[in-house]
Amino acid sequence: MGGDADVDSSASDSNEHSYQALIRKYNRNQREIRRLRSTVSFQLGLHLTTAARQPWRLLTLPVTFPLLCMKLGLQRLGKKPMDTGHEILGKGEEKQNHCIVLFPTNGVGFGHFTRMYALARELRRTDPSLEIVFFTPMPTLHILYSEEFPTYHLAGKYKHANMTSSQWNGLVEDMLHMVFEMHRPSWFMFDGAYPYRGMLNAIASQPNMEKWWMRRGSLKRKKSIPVDSTSFFDGVIIPREGDESIEGDDLHVVSPIMAVEPEDAWERDFARSRLAVPEEAFLVYVQLGAGRINDIENILEKVLEALYAHSHVHVVLGESMLGARLPFTHERLRILRDYPNAMYGRAFDAAIQAGGYNSFQEMRRFGVPTLFIPNTETGMDDQVARCQRAEEEGWGLVYLGQGESLEAKISHLLTLKSEPRAVENGTRGVIDLLQINPE
Fold first, then answer.
1. Which of 52, 81, 102, 176 gets the most CB atoms within 10 Å of its CB?
2. Average of pLDDT values for 130-146?
């Protein structure tokens, strides 16, 4: 009797496995068919062949064909919603697991990654039973592995030779589908300025999963996102930059998000001993980005020369893990290639930074007087607008290089005073929005 029951149970499990495998195969085929049908060449060809089969349409072809070309062009530019259909098979009865998938995109720095990293650590403290999974094109996977977060990686499109956006988005869609099938998450969160079409297609096929989009509020005015992007998400989370007001449907504003709070950073003496700098030194932290979209070596050389002119100043130069090794040496210079560098924040008397989200919020929170040299070549992030808030608040300066004296700005920086600001960490607000509670 028992043996027969075991056989029946095994046969049932096998049938269920085969059924799910067929569903996955069918869904993969449907995704491939949908991708082919959405290509410009297919839609233009279909329009022409339909006109050939129905000769009366040939009369209107001089009007309908240019209109179709305009429509397809606007769709590719994100000015018009894409015509996509997502047939869902075998999804309605699947039980979601107590799991969240975090998708930080790869920007020019660590902004997207750091927000998701900070959220993941707070989620783990709040609910140790929650499975936290990363999917990301960021190359700094060792940081996540050291924290024992399961991580899936797909290199960015430009890392692949001769790969089109359509091909890369197809990879994103297929890989995310595999992640969703494996983990069946209850929540998904994307952190990025521009939502990828492959990601949107993948999350659209998950009706039982909550989808959230985290993005900065300081986007350049002339930059836009696909008009139908927000419709794929249950809500948009915007970490506050300063005291600005943000309004809009489905927008949820939280406090700034930081990976390290001042009370969690190393004590001043301990941090300085790790950096091997004298206790009495005036220590300036310099970090101008990874140099991936702008040349930072020339401006770095000028900054360092201006700092060395002050004999009491020692410099810690932050070398980005995303950039090349820097060639500078000096008896009063230390190179720091670590993450998160905010662990050393209490050791610094002043800083010279680019205007990224992390740099701004950390220096503001730690109370470190800062000279900002914003990167004006970022695609979406308005660093100039962000950095000007530091001047308005009295704890920072901005150097734009337009007839200004860098030496004078640095001399002014060395006399500037600031105090730490009591700012709530926005990770708590995000968790409250998601309503994630221990099982």
1. 102
2. 94
